[in-house]
Amino acid sequence: MISVEGLKVEFGIKPLFDDASFVINDKDRIALVGKNGAGKSTMLKILCGQQKPTAGNISVPNDTKIGYLPQVMILQDDTTVREEAQKAFADNKRMKERLDRMNQELAERTDYESESYLALIEKYTTEHEQYMMMGAENYEAEIERTLTGLGFERTDFERPTSEFSGGWRMRIELAKILLQKPDVLLLDEPTNHLDIESIQWLEQFLAQSSSAVVLVSHDRAFINNVSNRTLEISCGKVIDYKVKYNEYVVLRKERREQQLRAYENQQKEVADMKAFIERFRYQATKAVQVQQKIKQLEKIVPIEVDDVDNSAMHLKFPPCLRSGDYPIICDEVRKDYGDHTVFDHVTLTIKRGEKVAFVGKNGEGKSTLVKCIMGEIPFTGELKVGHNIQIGYFAQNQAQLLDENLTVYQTIDYVAKGEIRLKINDILGAFMFGGEESDKKVKVLSGGERSRLAMIRLLLEPVNLLILDEPTNHLDMPSKDVLKEAIKAFDGTAIIVSHDREFLDGLVSKVYEFGGGKVREHLGGIYDFLRAKKINDLDQLGVKSAAAASPANPVVSASASGSPVATGNMDSVDIPQEPLKKALSYEERKAVQRKISKYEHYVKEREAAVEKLEARLKELDEELMKPENAANMELVTLYTDVKFELDCEVDRWEQACEALESYQAKLKNN
């Protein structure tokens, strides 16, 4: 669909990336990854034609429609939400007007036998079929479905866009792009202004979309659930991995390890040859062997080892004073804005050392309760901040409170104490302020850069209660890892308002859900909460479980050749319920015996398949150990596919064994 050849982009002396070549195919869902500043957003701008490369070619077919969502865009304020979304169907409206004009002309003309009349009929028929295939008559339903999926209520549709915050207006722009159904979607940080439910809806939308997708995001869970291919921009190179993000992380590590082993083996071989040449250079009896070794040495092609950007670091909060046992206690807290009740009857207790998450749709009161805790806004009810509490607060507008006349370095030097002052440059480098960036004035920094700087300041302050409101919006993955590691090692209490599931995973032990004017407590981590919530939704809706179990939704796995293999929905492995207490009839016993015979045969088939795949995996493992295959990515991909298929076969074998044992027990007990 889109072909990139020999792409080069230069800003100053050092190229951003050089000799980048890849192809974006139909239905590719590509995660574009790399550190901030590596060139991800630049690559998207080049692909959509907003920026020209220094060298190289971008080939895009003329009929290819590209939808591009940048991180920052100019937004309109003169329409309602529905009217703004309807702009996505401007082409449909023009086509409808064209069809109406042709229909009117056909009704008025009487030269039915003329060639021009017949040509008009043919043109009208063709365009009308195209119009109907586009589903143009149903666009209002599509608008409602997309807007509600992105978090809008139906009561919001007629509200002016000027009443919404920048984040909500970005959602409107995302909705417009999705509604246009482009052939290629280029999305730059689409989750920054979405809550968890909207992110999950967008995941499902992109997974079912027929469009190719190129995605930049720092939300690990999101890009892993959406992607089936990963392009890494690192150290000026673009490396293509034909796998989703999580598998790419493993392959990247394996690839470098193989290259290092091959490089070390080659260096040992070269050293041995050189030693032989030096030892026997002047012996006439060894002259022939020496010349052979020299020729072999000249023919050796040096193995290159990929450069890896590992400029992340470990960081810990400074020691803090011990706080009281209960840093935050809320009892019947309520907050109203005029006639609108944000929440009421909020009763919760956060213990010392707990790390909790506030989650829910935007506008449900997460930041409002944080402001109540900080004493920034009035409320009713009782809210106690515990004894000896020192609060470190990162608000979404925290960046606006920085002194604009200081440099980046001075801003951090002002709060750094003790030995940490010796590591200021390392800390700034971990958050993308290395080198000359540290000498910039705060007033020339972008909003994202200011947010990162405010986060660094907070990390250096001795506090025992952290309150972080959307801390990850402008951090790349390595920086998020630094922050997550620091919070996990933090001795105090933490309240984190975030929609980033991967960031919250393993970090929080309790989740408070904001919604419908209430705050509900869920024990466990973020994925425990999501699983529980999904079950609750199924109880209410009663449709998703049936759809998931339907034969129309086969499970698809990858074969060893890399092509999908439909394995069905495992309806042949129908594990029976608890054995019946009443005796089985003759027909029922026969049916159970047939099931047992069937599963005995099926188990043997699965065992044979597992043995065959294990043998194949062993062969590939031996091939990968050879130095000449160290950089053979096709072999690595084949190994991954075979390993995946083996895992699937083992799962089928285990399910079949469980079903067999259940039927045997059923026959024995009855």
Automatic annotation (TrEMBL):
Organism this protein belongs to: Xylanibacter ruminicola
Keywords per UniProt: ATP-binding, Coiled coil, Nucleotide-binding, Repeat
Domain ABC transporter: 2-260, 328-541
Membership in a protein family: Belongs to the ABC transporter superfamily. ABCF family. YbiT subfamily.
NCBIfam families registered for this protein in UniProt: ribo_prot_ABC_F
Name listed for the protein in its UniProt record: Probable ATP-binding protein YbiT
GO molecular function, one term: ATP binding
Sections of the chain in a coiled coil: 85-112, 596-670
Domain of life: Bacteria
Pfam families: ABC_tran, ABC_tran_Xtn
